[in-house]
Amino acid sequence: MTDLEQLDAILAKNIQNARRKAGISAEELSKRMEVGYTMDMISSWENRRSVPTRYAAEQVSEILGIPFQELVPVEEVLSAEWDNIDFEFILENILRIKRLTMHGFGRELGLWPNTIYSWKKGRHSPSRKHTRKILDLMGVDSVPGLVELLEEKEE
Question: Which residues of 51-75 are buried (b: 16+ CB within 10 A; e: fewer)?
Answer without folding.
Answer: bbbbebbebbbebbebeeeebbbee
